[in-house]
Amino acid sequence: MISVVIPTLDSALSVGAAIRSAPPGAEVVVVDGGSRDRTTDEAERAGARIESAPRGRAVQMNAGARAATGEMLVFLHADCRLPEEAAEQIRRVLARTGVAGGWFPQRIDGAGILFRLGARGSNRRARLLGLPYGDQAIFTRREVFLAAGGFPDDPIMEDAGLARRLRRLGRLEPAESAVVTGTDHWRRLGPLLTALLDYLTLAAWLAGVPPKWIAKVYFPLQQGARQRR
User: Fold this and answer.
1) Average per-residue pLDDT for the chain
2) Using an 8 Å Cβ cutoff, are 178 and 105 in contact?
3) Helices in the chain by DSSP H: which ranges?
4) pTM for this one?
5) CA diameter of the chain
6) Which of 34, 95, 189, 209 has the fewest CB atoms inside 10 Å of its own CB, making it the most exposed?
7) Are 178 and 106 in contact (CB under 8 A)?
């Protein structure tokens, strides 16, 4: 069985669509980090099981993996939607010899060349560096996730951290169809500044800068942009 783990925080506007995109018969576990809107109500209405955990995607997704019962785990952000063929493609990728996990190419749910270029850059980074991000719906088998040690308990880049851990156990390969990602992340600073900040963040992380230091710069910039909108 496939379990889809969705971390949420004030995600009422998007979580229902994320849950409904899960493959038929899949278990959906929503792990809420203390939402103050109707996130959990919307998640329950869409058919998910609700868990709670301290705020932080790494903490929430690790808690969701522990609560899930499926032998295959998919980590889906609340503003993303899986393709219709997700179950078949997940099984196909994970059945390959030497594969520890996989991810979905990204398509940003917005019109315009900058969004297409942003998605293209994200997919190229995931392929060339073997570092998919959380909005590319990383998936793996439960036993491999546990052997890797799960997500590192970091405030940022926890998704790349999991990818790095998985790669010690095998290859990461992409599915064929794309996961659809919301535009909120890209609209706060605008596509160009968002891409620049994301690549600078990745460069700092690859250079060994502690994630807690990166977070002290990254999140204030994102929050300031959110407040100006």
Assistant:
1) 95
2) yes
3) 15-20, 39-45, 57-67, 86-94, 113-129, 142-148, 158-167, 184-189, 191-206, 211-228
4) 0.95
5) 49
6) 95
7) yes
